[in-house]
């Protein structure tokens, strides 16, 4: 059997049989590395930790505590949330669910907007699914096979996305138990690694951000590798809410809003008017002193 040479970040090299999995390499380097690694960078490109190495490569293991590892955790948690939603709301249609800075979201086509109680139930179902340590598995298939798969599941948003992909390009999907989602990955090896998360809120969003399209329901959430980091982030959110201009404006009697006037257009109250006038005076004096 042919062999491959892998170069590690410290420039040391090791030889393995061709087709060796990244996880096997991590295991042979050290048990702790294998335990902490959730993905691997092969020649600077991210792959699942179960991916196979078939040619000489530079590899670097990605841990859940790293920036890239956090992105993978967020994305996998979004999939876990979509799985929970599909179990609790079988008629819901899934659309897209990316990770964003310290957060993730997923948009759903549902008949009735999600309530606060719905979010609690979804979060509880997520914890149940995570405790089952379901294996997250990657599959490749042709474009036609993927269209057929999601058509059978009546997931027409996924079919719309797939139809826009180059027909020559293979499609990657990920499964965990009976839930299957369209995704490039990489993802965590199993749902058991998703331990510290919180659903934050739900809101409306147009499909693909186009107001001509259907209004969807978006659920935001966050996830971290430790309870301490999660609690710190949730604390920052609460502190930010206290300083929200809409909250402060109401509490300090600075301004109010009226839907008939228009959303986002403040109606200045007496105290607010004084504040605006003083700021205008300060701006004019500053410009005058600067020679403008």
Automatic annotation (TrEMBL):
Coiled-coil parts of chain: 112-142
GO biological process terms held by the UniProt record: threonyl-tRNA aminoacylation
Catalyzed reaction equations: tRNA(Thr) + L-threonine + ATP = L-threonyl-tRNA(Thr) + AMP + diphosphate + H(+)
Annotated SMART domains: tRNA_SAD (SM00863)
Keyword list, A-Z: Aminoacyl-tRNA synthetase, ATP-binding, Coiled coil, Ligase, Metal-binding, Nucleotide-binding, Protein biosynthesis, Zinc
InterPro entries listed in its UniProt record: aa-tRNA-synth_II/BPL/LPL, Beta-grasp_dom_sf, TGS, TGS-like, Thr/Ala-tRNA-synth_IIc_edit, tRNA_SAD
Residue span, TGS domain: 1-63
Signal sequence region: none
Molecular function per GO: ATP binding; metal ion binding; threonine-tRNA ligase activity
Pfam family for this entry, one: tRNA_SAD
Record-listed E.C. numbers: 6.1.1.3
Matches recorded under Gene3D superfamilies: 3.10.20.30, 3.30.54.20, Bira Bifunctional Protein, Domain 2 (3.30.930.10), Threonyl-trna Synthetase, Chain A, domain 2 (3.30.980.10)
Family statement drawn from the similarity comment of this UniProt entry: Belongs to the class-II aminoacyl-tRNA synthetase family.
Name by which UniProt lists this protein: threonine--tRNA ligase
Organism field: marine metagenome
């Amino acid at each position: 059997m042919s062999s491959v040479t892998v170069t590690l970040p410290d420039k040391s090299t090791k030889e393995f049989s061709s087709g060796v999995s990244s996880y096997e390499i991590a295991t042979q380097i050290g048990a702790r590395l294998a335990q902490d690694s959730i993905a691997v960078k092969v020649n600077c490109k991210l792959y699942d930790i179960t991916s196979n190495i078939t040619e000489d490569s530079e590899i670097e293991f990605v841990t859940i505590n790293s920036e890239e590892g956090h992105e993978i955790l967020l994305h996998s948690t979004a999939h876990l949330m979509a799985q929970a939603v599909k179990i609790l709301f079988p008629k819901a249609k899934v659309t897209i669910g990316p990770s964003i800075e310290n957060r993730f979201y997923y948009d759903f086509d549902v008949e009735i907007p999600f309530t606060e109680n719905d979010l609690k139930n979804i979060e509880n179902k997520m914890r149940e699914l995570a405790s089952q340590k379901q294996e997250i598995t990657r599959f490749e298939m042709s474009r036609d096979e993927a269209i057929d798969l999601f058509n059978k599941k009546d997931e027409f948003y996924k079919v719309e996305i797939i139809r826009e992909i180059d027909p020559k390009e293979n499609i990657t999907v990920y499964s965990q138990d009976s839930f299957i989602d369209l995704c490039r990955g990489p993802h965590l090896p199993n749902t058991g690694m998703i331990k510290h998360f919180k659903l934050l809120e739900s809101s409306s969003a147009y499909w693909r951000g186009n107001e001509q399209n259907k209004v969807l329901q978006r659920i935001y959430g966050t996830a971290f590798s430790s309870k301490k980091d999660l609690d710190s982030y949730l604390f920052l959110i609460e502190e930010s809410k206290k300083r929200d201009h809409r909250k402060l404006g109401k509490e300090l009697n600075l301004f109010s809003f009226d839907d008939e006037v228009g959303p986002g257009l403040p109606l200045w109250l007496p105290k607010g008017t004084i504040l605006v006038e003083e700021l205008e005076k300060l701006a004019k004096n500053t410009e005058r002193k600067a020679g403008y």
